[in-house]
């Protein structure tokens, strides 16, 4: 992988991930090739953006022919690291945690929940699909034994840093954080935060601007 | 509001939203002032970034004193449009929809669910907290009557565009889209997409890069 890849922005990665979804749809429709324009339309961006994003990783298209759907899909799967399966643990079984655990698209994309933890004694030992809820007090040891690579955090804000610290000690290198708090992690560990109220505020900010323009 | 506001990036808005959260915490701790460094540490960014973000909207800090916590919080609430209440509807009561409906932080931030819709006859008429699930077939009319301003979409990908079209006809100007599909909306309508598998792929891409570096 060329060194330049390390500088690819999260926004570019998000678009690649969306192109991958579009290519899956095209393949199911039996399409063999696709132009950057059609790919862009379905992904909600521009043809120039598609070409720019893909050119970061090599030369995939053929002039006048477009991209080969299956080939490009396989390339993108490799680039995004979804051509393999990631071992994921969920910590914190509230309503959001339960919803994520049963979110069908994760597994389809190569993210497999292999363990689930909570600190509530009433939840520990109960079943969630194929998994049994384990006690968060043994988190570090259990994550290590289970070979977990990514942790999805749906614990209250006050507990999030402690859980993250234990996960890092257990060798986890990726954390998807739903708790409304900024986590501190050592270099080499990546946190991606999903903050739902923040996303609603991005909307309300735009609506405020629109209203002012009217 | 100065015209320049319309050019503020979503990333800057996300950070402002996080500063707002940090300021709320500082206020509860009884702090009256805060330096850009402390604000940055708690928000997981740098002091220079804090100063740059805030400077987009005016001059809030005092040299050597920092920012007045309550004043800055009130300013940010105004800028982000959360000093008012937004009327929000949820369309699609699957597990994710149900989790969002009961997410306590939305209400605390001024986003109030005033209506909920589903197309499943077994769900229509059932209670969800204070709300009764309404039939998605009357969506457009009902959204208009209820004065809904923001719609949260948690329907399957195949239904999302149709629902969005109805919402737009009903006067909705903001859509938070959890469906894995790019929505087409007219100018003046803002869509913010939350794509959970995409966020996991941002993580797996980074982990792939890290592994390659080792």
Question: Alpha-carbon distance between the termini of chain A?
Answer: 49 Å
- The averaged pLDDT of chain A comes out at 88
Largest interface: pair, residues per side: A-B, 65 and 65 residues
Total beta strands of chain A: 9
Whole-angstrom Rg of chain A: 20 Å
User: At the fourth CATH level, what is the homologous superfamily of the largest domain in chain A?
Assistant: NAD(P)-binding Rossmann-like Domain
Shape of chain A: elongated
CATH class of the largest domain in chain A: Alpha Beta
In this structure, how is the largest beta sheet of chain A organized?
A: 7 strands, mixed
Class of secondary structure makeup of chain A: alpha/beta
Report the sheet-strand fraction of chain A: 15-25%
Low-confidence stretches of chain A: 1-5, 210-214
| Helix-strand string of chain A | HEHHEHEHHEEEHEHEEH
Multimerization state: homodimer
Number of helices of chain A: 9
State the share of residues found in helices of chain A, binned by percent: 40-55%
| Arrangement of strands in the largest sheet of chain A | 5-6-4-3-7-8-9
What is the compact description of this entry?
Two copies of one chain form a homodimer. Chain A has 214 residues and is of the alpha/beta class.
Keywords:
seven-stranded mixed beta sheet, Rossmann fold, homodimer, two-stranded antiparallel ribbon, elongated, 214 residues, alpha/beta
């Amino acid at each position: 992988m060329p060194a330049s890849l390390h500088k690819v922005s999260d926004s570019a990665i998000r678009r690649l991930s969306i192109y991958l979804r579009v290519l899956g749809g095209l393949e199911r429709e039996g399409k063999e090739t696709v132009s950057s324009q059609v790919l862009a339309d379905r992904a909600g961006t521009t043809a120039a953006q598609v070409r720019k994003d893909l050119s970061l990783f090599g030369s995939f298209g053929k002039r006048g022919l477009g991209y080969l759907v299956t080939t490009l899909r396989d390339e993108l799967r490799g680039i995004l690291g979804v051509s393999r399966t990631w071992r994921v643990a969920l910590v914190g079984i509230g309503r959001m945690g339960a919803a994520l655990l049963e979110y069908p698209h994760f597994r389809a994309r190569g993210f497999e929940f292999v363990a689930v933890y909570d600190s509530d004694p009433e939840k520990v030992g109960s079943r969630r699909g194929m998994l049994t809820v384990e006690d968060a007090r043994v988190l570090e040891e259990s994550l290590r034994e289970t070979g977990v690579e990514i942790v999805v955090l749906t614990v209250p804000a006050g507990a999030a840093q402690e859980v993250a610290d234990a996960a890092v000690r257990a060798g986890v290198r990726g954390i998807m954080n739903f708790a409304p708090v900024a986590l501190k992690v050592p270099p080499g560990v990546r946190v991606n935060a999903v903050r739902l109220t923040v996303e609603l505020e991005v909307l309300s900010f735009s609506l405020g601007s629109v209203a002012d323009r009217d």
